[in-house]
Amino acid sequence: MEAVARTLGPTASEAWRRLGSSLEAFIAEKQTFKLVYTTKPAWPVLPASCERAHIAVLDASFNPPTRAHAGLAQLRPAAPPHHFDAHLFLFSVRNADKGRGRPGDASPLQRLHMMLLLAQHLEQSDMQVAVALVDEPLVFAKSTLLHQHLCASAPLRLHWLMGSDTLVRVFQPKYYESEAALHLACDRFFVQEQSKMICAERSATSVQGIAGLPGATAPLSQATSHELHHLLEHNSLARHWLDNGGIQLHPLDPAVARHSSTAVRTFLREAQAQGMSHEELVAALQTMVPTPVVPYLATEHVY
């Protein structure tokens, strides 16, 4: 781990050393939001002429980060200004389905390590990136939480980047007290907070981890989600916000979209069982995860 940490810049190296204590304090003090890394101390740094800060939020389990996560982070809004002023990687210590996590998952600290590596990777493209912890499982509530805690020199507009599997879950009534509560949450998110959802389609094979395995034969043309299409055809609430611009669908390169955290975990467990050499392991991981994450997964035996 120390060898990986030494590859980071000075700001990220200092954040890396503090991650463990930051996470412990977050949980012990029952905090709800905490920035644990920012590209610049005054993140987000905005031009003086900026009238509204457009922040891209990538809210995921990062278990581990994949090339699909990096692809999502590099999406651009279709409407002006056609760029984001900054990016926020968000990790919730509490998941709506999985609670505090499942056996075999990377630990929260390991995920933060990998999120920091992903942030450093994207900063090479001149992105302003922050990494934050939240203790809230649902997107709508997270949005309100961010508006309460984030400070900038201009009003914020949050653009939530997600795969189609996440968008489908967002509109499942089982996560809300009632249909009315879901409608109210949508009104607060899309109207009052003026937040948006940018959805990149992911196929069922990629979500399940089939398409992303090395040597998989699932055709790249399967980068479409029948579940998403069913949602938008039969869920009037989701369709309403799609038609009104609150939800935007974006294409993602099928060669990138096919990768999933499930596939990476499956591959690593199979590689260990087969006694795969370090060289073969690294070569395969290079096709699945961002380059800085490769040595971490290859040496830390996370899964």
TrEMBL record:
<dbReference type="InterPro" id="IPR014729">
    <property type="entry name" value="Rossmann-like_a/b/a_fold"/>
</dbReference>
<protein>
    <submittedName>
        <fullName>Nicotinamide-nucleotide adenylyltransferase</fullName>
        <ecNumber>2.7.7.1</ecNumber>
    </submittedName>
</protein>
<keyword id="KW-0548">Nucleotidyltransferase</keyword>
<dbReference type="GO" id="GO:0005737">
    <property type="term" value="C:cytoplasm"/>
</dbReference>
<dbReference type="GO" id="GO:0005634">
    <property type="term" value="C:nucleus"/>
</dbReference>
<keyword id="KW-0808">Transferase</keyword>
<dbReference type="GO" id="GO:0000309">
    <property type="term" value="F:nicotinamide-nucleotide adenylyltransferase activity"/>
</dbReference>
<dbReference type="GO" id="GO:0016887">
    <property type="term" value="F:ATP hydrolysis activity"/>
</dbReference>
